[in-house]
Amino acid sequence: RNTDYLIINESEYRNLTGIIEPVPACKAILNNSKLDIKVIVTMGENGCIFANRQNIMSIPAAKITTTTGNNNLRILNTAGAGDAFIGTFAAMKILGYDDIESLISANVSGAIKATRENIRGSPALNEILEIKGNLEIKPTIIS
To answer: Among the four residues 19, 22, 119, 122, which has the most C-beta atoms within 10 Å?
Structure first.
């Protein structure tokens, strides 16, 4: 009853619904819930899906290909990327950002996290916003 957002990954929505594709799974979750929840499906390098009763959107992943200092950003370790995503989403909501901007920032945060070998610690807000400002991420309505 106290849930506003259900954030799940690909294996979790499959286990929860028995449905292989994310859009029908989101529809099933929304249709089976008496609550006015929003569903977010994290899909790693494929970004995320955001679903509510009005529509379902695809938010592309942040493709980080820039170079900062002497470090070329490339995927080193995906451990903790989902946690960084969720933490950033929650933080951006607390700061007053809307759902879509919060999810774009969360995608950037997860991507940054995956460029780090160490699984501890998440990217700082200024780092997320700087890299986000250099990217063009356009969500699309898919249903």
So the answer is: 22
- d(CA 29, CA 37) in angstroms, rounded, equals 9
In the structure encoding, which two tokens stand for residue 29, read together?
């979750």
Centre a 10 Å sphere on the Cβ of residue 59 and count the other Cβ atoms it contains: 22
List CB contacts of 114: < 8 A, sequence separation 6 or more.
75, 76, 77, 78, 81
Rounded CA gap, 112 and 81, in Å? 8
Length of the chain, in residues: 143
Owner of token pair 């609550």:
35
Beta bridge partners of 8: 41
Whether the CB-CB separation of 58 and 95 falls below 8 Å is answered with no
pLDDT tens, per residue, the chain with 143 residues: 788 999 999 999 999 999 999 999 999 999 987 878 999 999 988 899 999 999 999 999 887 764 455 455 565 555 666 788 898 999 999 999 999 999 999 998 888 887 766 666 778 888 888 888 888 889 989 98
